Amino acid sequence: MTKVNRTVEGIINYMDGASHLVEFASSKFEEIVEVEVKGRELVYTKTLSLVMVLDLSCNSLSGEIPLGLMDLIGLQSLNLSKNQLEGNITDKFGGMAQLEALDLWMNRLSKKIPGSIALLTSLSYLNLSHNDLSSRIPSGNHIQTLTDPSIYAGNCDLCGFSLPKC
Predict the structure, then answer these.
(1) Alpha carbons 161 and 150: distance in angstroms, whole number
(2) Is 118 helix (H, G, I), strand (E, B) or coil?
(3) 8 Å CB contact between 133 and 158
(4) Which residue range forms the structural domain that includes residue 36?
(5) Are 136 and 155 in contact (CB under 8 A)?
(6) CB burial class (10 A; 0-12, 13-18, 19+) of residue 8?
(7) Which of 5, 28, 40, 107 has the most CB atoms less than 10 A away?
(8) 118 vs 140, which has greater pLDDT?
(9) Do residues 34 and 71 share a domain?
(10) Other C-beta atoms lying within 10 Å of the C-beta of residue 113
């Protein structure tokens, strides 16, 4: 979904105060989003950093959670609830440092909750209920502040903090 490109534009040379030649590369960063809608590919290059909230709930989405969403590093709220997403919750969620709200309620996500979820120190709302998650809820300083057991409800084989012991 997104790409961050770094292009080197040139090498800059200068002499420092001690008459040493100093070289460094001049570069620029560019954000690009490529979206295919009804067979048309659209490319956005100027507005990607403005995406802070993404709500794709109730859209009958299927398959795995697209890894391209993890490149939206400025995202503060992601709602993928009430779809038919399946597979694992990717460990790459841990890189979304700005994420404050994550709603994956009522999908078909399975296996374990990745430990990287505990790295999301800005996370104040989490809903992983009504999936097929199993194993132990990851521990970590911040995730243990989310104490409401209903955020894990409907995952029969899930256990750990705020739920029965494993």
Answers:
(1) 12
(2) helix
(3) yes
(4) 1-48
(5) no
(6) exposed
(7) 107
(8) 118
(9) no
(10) 26
SS3 44: strand
Instruction: Please compute Rg for the chain using Cα positions.
Output: 21
H or E element that contains 24: strand 21-37
Say whether 25 sits in a helix, a strand or coil.
Answer: strand
First to last CA, the chain: 38
Domain count, the chain: 2
Task: Collapse the DSSP code of 89 into the 3-class scheme (helix H, G, I; strand E, B; otherwise coil) and give the result.
Answer: coil
Strand partners, 105: none
Q: What per-residue string of b and e applies to 40-49 under the rule 16 or more CB within 10 Å gives b?
A: eeeeeeeebe
Same domain, 91 and 102: yes
Can you give the pTM of this predicted structure?
A: 0.72
Binning pLDDT at 50, 70 and 90, where does residue 1 land? Answer: very low
